[in-house]
Amino acid sequence: MLTPEQNERLVRTDRGTEMGTLLRRYWIPALLAEEIPEPDCPPVRVTLMGENLIAFRDTQGRIGLLDEFCSHRTASLFFGRNEECGLRCAYHGWKYDVEGNCVDMPSEPPASRFHEKIKQTAYPCVELGGVIWTYMGPPELKPELPELEWATLPPENVFVSKRLQESNFMQAMEGGIDSSHVSFAHRFNMDDDPMHAGTPGIEYLKADTRPKFEVIESDGGLLIGARREADEENYYWRITQWIMPWYTIIPPFGTHNPLGGHAWVPIDDETCWAWSINYHPTRPLREDELDAMRRGEGIHAKYLPGTYRTAANKTNDYLIDRQAQKDKRSFSGVEGIAAQDFSLQESMGPIVDRTKERLGTSDAAIILARRRLLAAAETAAKDEPLPGDRAEHHRVRSASVLLPRSVPFQEGAKDALVVRPGEDFVSV
Amino acid sequence: MPPASRSHRSYRADVLLVPLEPRSRTAVTSPAPHDALDGITVSGTDTPLGGTDFRPDVVVMLTHDLAAVEAGLATRVGASARASGALVGAIVISPDRGWHGPEARSAAAELRAAADTVVVLSGMSPAVALLRVLRGGPQTAGHGTI
């Protein structure tokens, strides 16, 4: 539980807030590359941490992310013309390049140099792993580029989706590091995820629904080990990586199935983008896997057509099926692993009131993640280096392993928890 | 007369902190953590649970030095806590996040078997924050409360 003040510190991300200052010190997944697929394509609106922005890809393929509203009369650049290496406001023709320079001001005399004084807010962008990332913090503190494994692989090895989640980013992310919900919220649907298929791991998971937890501070976040009975000599460990400020890597099932991961990025204080990523380090994803992901199976979600909003959402009670609940086809009655998660996370309200909660020992990872974020916010205020801001913090993997009962997981799975390029991950 | 019911908002758990070796005992009785651990009962290691009517909701074992933990102690504390219906946690303070040597490894294995959750932390400050959340009740700012 938190004090009201601590809860506010944790969830508010507008510019100038503590958490907003912290989060702006990291590279931010801003939009899918497919949203601006080609040079001079239509610009798209992007809202990040309460800032309304406009993204476009210019004639030369460079990516721009500008303040949405023109510096002149604040008309939205969404209605602008993306042409000849710049985005031109449809109102009076002011034109900006990807760095926010006003490169043309046709409403003023040709000899005027007034345009040289105008600078539209612009954030640097980079395209990695099918995602356009931006950095919104002080330029002199810009960290190394993200090196999360999925962001470094060939495009054919990766599938990325995003969905609108109608809750604060923090409670969504807490769901991602809360391993104990798996045995309940997803109880009758463990076999539904095509990424679980054909593995002993899923059998261990189903056989022991009372895992025990070990949580270890890592350089970039937390290592969360969930331990289940395997046989007389071994435990089955599922080890999740939480990488600050908002990434998780889900423990895999078998090495033939792809790995999975998430990121939760604030749109504003009451909504966030839930990013879901499947990837395989050593092979392209198969067509049947991609089909399942595009259909919204596994960690992905079914959309309302033409949007990133989910078909099951709070306006329709997430299409809850009480008969499926009764028949034990779905523990919560909601269809799909992802929808089971976000329906419960959103049910807490747009911003959960953490003064009301009562946490126990199985919530240790959540407690420590909050503490690390608040501590990092204090570090960010002093412009010092942050956990999770270095590439080496990103080069980690989750794992699922069988280990002798006497072996600590951080020791027994040490090699499995780092990226070894070109080598398979470790999983049963 | 039964005790007045407590809402989940105000519920303050009875937490028993059990330092498992001398270094941890020193750490929790030094002024800074001790002040922050207000409302958390710190036990002696010889009679960690028995001998009183105190029935904690949560028992947390603490060690800074796994190699110095007496063999069998974590098992006894865990069994006693479980018998009283308490949640059982363990905190290992280990700045290098590892443990070395047969005694330490053996103690770690015992701790793992005895506790529902084991947390390995780099210092006492996050441990205090964790304990205060487990204690619950009205929270005040400061002392690393989370």
Task: Give the key terms.
heterodimer, A: 428 residues, alpha+beta, Rieske Iron-sulfur Protein, Naphthalene 1,2-dioxygenase Alpha Subunit, Chain A, domain 1, 2 domains, 4-stranded antiparallel beta sheet, 12 helices, 21% helix, 23% strand, globular, B: 146 residues, alpha/beta, Rossmann fold, 5-stranded parallel beta sheet, 5 helices, disordered N terminus
Averaged pLDDT of chain A: 95
Q: Based on the coordinates given, report the CATH architecture of chain B.
A: 3-Layer(aba) Sandwich
The helix tally of chain A amounts to 12
Whole-number mean pLDDT of chain B: 82
Rg over C-alpha atoms of chain A, rounded to the nearest angstrom: 22 Å
Largest interface: A-B, 34 and 37 residues
| Separation, N- and C-terminal Cα atoms of chain B | 35 Å
Q: Structural class of the secondary structure composition of chain B?
A: alpha/beta
Backbone shape of chain B: globular
What is the alpha-carbon Rg of chain B in Å? 15 Å
Total number of distinct structural domains of chain B? 1
CATH fold naming of chain B: Rossmann fold
Roughly what fraction of the amino acids of chain A lie in strands?
15-25%
> How much of the residues of chain B is beta strand, in percent?
15-25%
CATH class of chain B: Alpha Beta
